[in-house]
Amino acid sequence: xxxxxxxxxxxAKAAAGxxxxxxxxxxxxxxLDAARANHPGELVRVLQRCSFLVDGDPVGTRSHETxxxxxxxxxxxxxxxxxx
Length: 84
Hints:
The chain is of the alpha+beta class. The chain is 27% helix and 29% strand.
């Protein structure tokens, strides 16, 4: 298992009630499942609309089960943003 940090931005931060928290997971799917379990309710809905960066790289349309997490890594949770 890899340990790292999940950072929540904007609506995801508001829904989670924290700006960041640690994860222990092998894949992005596992880390997000733990986040949903830790923050049931609004965060579960917000995550459905989010984009994700893993160590600065966009996840895009890749299956979250296939995105491996590195020891000391960072997952950025990015809700849709408006403006320019």
